[in-house]
Amino acid sequence: MKTLCIVPFTSKEFPLLPHLMSSYDNVIFLSPKGIGTDKEDIAMMQNLEPLGFKFCNSIKGSIEIADDVLVSNINVEDVALYNFAYDALECAVKKGKKVMSFLQMHSYQKELLKKRSKINIDFYDNYEDNVELESAICYKERKNKLYEFKIPVLYVSELIPDSNGYSVFLNLISMFKKDKIEVLAISSDTYNVLINQTVLKFEKRNNFPDAIYQINNYIHFLTLQKNPDVILIKLPQPMIKYDNDNCFDFGMSAYMLSQAIPGDGNICCSYLGTPILQFWGNLNDSCKYKFGYPILGVFVNNKRIDMTQEKRISTFCVPNSSEYRIQELKLLNENNSLTFYDANNAIDFKRFYTFVIRNFFDIKFGEI
Asked: Is the pLDDT of residue 365 over 60?
């Protein structure tokens, strides 16, 4: 049996769970007590029904029985969690485990760990896409050339950060693979390297017009290399501002990408508590007029915005099976032309994929 240890396991790693389970016989969810106490079901993190997987708090005991160790992407500013991750990394190196590290570190720290390690360590904390290099050839030769894409282009968007967008993105990849549909999946999420998909830091493109040509050229380059049946892109920022204190990037990255890679549909991920009437119809119209593609469906999670926070958006998870949540989904579907799905329900996702995405591929390209 092959065992993977994820340390520390946080909400950011939650979407990876079904995709990593297929490669390992057992997964250990190692976190400090501040995230989850020993033998507590990891579902408590998202206020979901029990999943049958338990937290572990012992670094030494967990690393000892693991074959591979995945060290999470933790910001150095989160001191306590970062130190926990680094201690686990040092322990894994000392015990000669295979390590995949996304932990932010200085180059001298990496060199010291490599010297002490019995096997190679894969560092992904500064993983960068090669857009600057690989698109340079076509970009220099045809600076004002925008390539057309003859395959469907689907976008995954969020209304606010951490609205299950990455989970929907990964689930679509899995469904495409099951149907033997070759997908070119692109997002700014570093964990994409674990599933052999593309990491592209869209937000690092400074000059707006040049960025459009550059990204267009690079994605065209990738399509020539991979010959995909569909392009799937997760937007790096919410497609609209929430309010004047939470503007994100004012939808600029969404607009930039719509010009670089014209889309055919948008899978939107939302929180609980959006207006029932008018809002979604207006948003769909805005999406079509501004970005050139409609919303194909909306996935609503179990997160609500914490109104006690004055400026910065903060959310909390309501019980997934709460009557309030069930009723809101019902009202959204009864009062809108769009279809709303339960983001935490596998049956709902399969229904969306079967009746929307598969049908999308059966109709003439460009028609929705």
From this structure: no
> Across the chain, which distance is largest between two alpha carbons, in Å?
62
* pLDDT tens profile 255-304: 999 999 999 999 999 999 999 999 999 999 999 999 999 999 999 999 99
Give me the DSSP letters along 226-245. Answer: H--SEEEEE-SS-SS-SBTT
Q: How far is CA 2 from CA 28, 65, 293, 352, in A?
A: 11, 10, 44, 33
Q: How distant, in Å, are the alpha carbons of 270, 341, 346, 359 from that of 329?
A: 11, 7, 16, 23
Nearest CA among 253, 250, 230, 257 for reference residue 365? 230
What the block records as the tokens of 231 is: 């392009």
pLDDT tens, residue by residue, 177-211: 999 999 999 999 999 999 889 888 876 656 788 88
CA pair distance 4, 2, nearest whole angstrom: 7
> Could you give the CA distance from residue 280 to residue 273 in angstroms, rounded to a whole number?
12
Q: What is the DSSP string of 280-322?
A: HHHHHHHHHHHHS--EEEEEEEEEEE-TTSSSS--EEEPPTT-
How far is the C-alpha of 48 from the C-alpha of 334, rounded, in Å? 25
Question: Smallest Cα–Cα separation from 268: which of 235, 243, 295, 302?
Answer: 295
Order the strands of the 26-30 sheet from edge to edge: 55-56, 26-30, 3-7, 68-71, 98-101, 121-123
Whether this model's pTM surpasses 0.85: yes
